[in-house]
Amino acid sequence: MTPRAALIIARRAIRANLLPGLLLQAVMGGFLSLYLLHDGTRQFLVRVAEVKYETGYWFAFVSYLISAALLPEILRVVFFQGGKATRSNLWNFLTAAPFWGLMGMLVDLFYRGQALWFGVGHDGLTILIKVLVDQFLFSPFLSSPLAVGYFSWRDLHFSVPAARSIFRPGFYFDRIFPVQVAGWCIWIPGVCLVYFMPSELQIPVATLLQSFWVLVFLLVNRPRLTR
Fold first, then answer.
1. I need a labelling partner for 58 at 20 to 30 A (CA). Which of 11, 91, 102, 206 fits?
2. Average pLDDT over residues 142-168
3. In 3D, which of 126, 140, 224 has the Cα closest to residue 180?
């Protein structure tokens, strides 16, 4: 695929995700209001932060496994399969779970790195720098290629010879770039909230956003995901 064709697909991705992106901003606004104004919400999040601190990277592993591997299969069964689970659901979960769990740990490590590099301040400049590094370095050059590459390989039943198609010239613009553009619609406003939160709450908040991200692609962009 040429860069021009990839840009056309990217524009479609932006249009398709504009409404979900606006909805996410509304949800984030409500969540932030509860965090700032509601004592019960703050106390609950303090306890979540304590659990995150006590369990370390395992918290990220389990939370991403649930939000990105288990939740999608439950939704497929409930909304698209009439409540009847199949072997393919088990296969999807078993092959997605370790990947998303490890990605959760990678994201947790990245957030810790951001805190070391740029500090834990919540001022506008610090948040802006972290968002730019997150969305224009980490995401397009590491997390998105890993995710798209892995699931493309899974679609090929983990065939080693077939894996050559993943590393062919143009794969980035053909498969990764459109997904990345769609991700920007959700994650750019999302990570602004993530980096506003205290360090121990960043992964829990990112997990909530990950769940929303999965819901968007299942319910709005399902044909693109399953192509």
1. 91
2. 85
3. 140
CA distance 201 to 187: 17
Structure tokens at 174: 């053909």
Number of helices followed by number of strands (H, E) in the chain: 11, 0
Domain extents in the chain: 3-57+102-225
SS3 of residue 33 by DSSP? helix
CB-based contact 195:115 (threshold 8 Å): no
SS (H, E, C) 59-120: HHHHHHHHHHHHHHHHHHHHHHCCCCCCHHHHHHHHHHHHHHHHHHHHHHHHHHHHHHHHCC
Query: Which helix or strand (DSSP H or E) is residue 143 part of?
Result: none
99, 125, 144, 200 from 147: Cα distances, Å:
8, 29, 5, 25
Do 210 and 108 touch, CB atoms closer than 8 A? Answer: no
Residues 60-76 pLDDT 10s: 999 999 988 998 888 77
Q: How far is CA 60 from CA 47, 57, 155, 191, in A?
A: 15, 5, 26, 16
Question: Nearest CA to 145 among 117, 167, 125?
Answer: 167
Question: By the 8 A CB rule, do 221 and 17 touch?
Answer: yes
Residue with tokens 């932006």: 14
